[in-house]
Amino acid sequence: MENILKIDKIEKYYGNKSSLTKALNNISFDVAKGEFVAIMGASGSGKTTLLNCISTIDKVTSGHIYVAGEDITMLKGNKLNQFRREELGFIFQDFNLLDTLTAYENIALALSIQNVNVHKLDQRIQKVATDLNIKDVLRKYPYQMSGGQKQRVASARAIITNPKLILADEPTGALDSKSAKMLLERFTYLNKELAATILMVTHDAFTASYASRVIFIKDGKLFNEIHKGDSSRKMFFDQIIGVVTLLGGDLNDAL
After folding, report:
1. Amino acid 9: pLDDT
2. Which among 70, 138, 139, 164 would be 20 to 30 A from 147, CA to CA?
3. In DSSP terms, which residues pair with 166 in a beta bridge?
């Protein structure tokens, strides 16, 4: 199976010689095309740093990150901007919608930058709005929408360009339980029906249980990973909780 993402022995240091913090410690893993992977870890474990490095918001100190075979740690200037614009989709906890634009205009912005013609632009927006069940809010402004609606609009904006990889940073963190469940069901639809590749950082076991694989990080290192396989979401949730309880100790304690 084709790998969309390859993390190869990356390390990330912050600070200087007198006060050096190792945020990521020799991390390596792959994400296959069409996978839905969650990354979990306690606050300060390095999971957000990892996502920032993959999204090119931050740079690794050593190691390499490949997206669709391209070493993104080597990209600079216009090539880096093009990569962010065309190959990645971002979904943030705080939505990052522009308040002066309608939902339709917020979604269209990503396509406008790529100079997609108006007719195709409208077709694609209508399609993604149907997929995410937001057709009824397309003409509304962010202040007129619920948190769940805003997050689904933000998700539509992220996937409208058909990116190779969708990165989600605590996407349910600002949502109530009903809105979170609805959004996660849409993520599952995007992953299963549209073959979207999703990498999601979360601290929440319920959110992670919608993924097909969960990678756990502790103190900047890979701690464990589990696969959903044929398990039900409830069974997978119980597995996740089991590993989360170990994050305070050593995985070998339970073997």
Report:
1. 97
2. 164
3. 89, 198
User: How many Å apart are CA 44 and CA 205, to the nearest integer?
Assistant: 17
Beta strand 3-16 with 62-67: parallel, antiparallel or unpaired? antiparallel
Tokens coding 205: 């076991």
Residue 177 CA to residue 22 CA, distance in Å, equals 35
Report d(CA 111, CA 141) in Å as an integer: 19
Computed over every residue of the chain, the mean pLDDT equals 90
Q: Cα(219)–Cα(111) distance, rounded to whole angstroms? A: 39
Of the candidates 158, 161, 169, 138, the residue with the CA atom closest to the CA atom of residue 47: 169
Contacts of 227 (CB under 8 A, 6+ apart): 212, 213
What is the token pair recorded at 38? 């969650």
**In which band, very low, low, confident or very high, does the pLDDT at 249 lie, cut at 50, 70 and 90?**
low
Q: Helix (H, G, I), strand (E, B), or coil: what is residue 25? A: strand
Helix, strand, coil share of the chain (percent; to 5):
40, 25, 35
Residue position matching structure tokens 């539509």: 156
Bridging pattern class, strands 70-71 and 62-67: antiparallel
Pair of tokens at residue 158: 């992220």
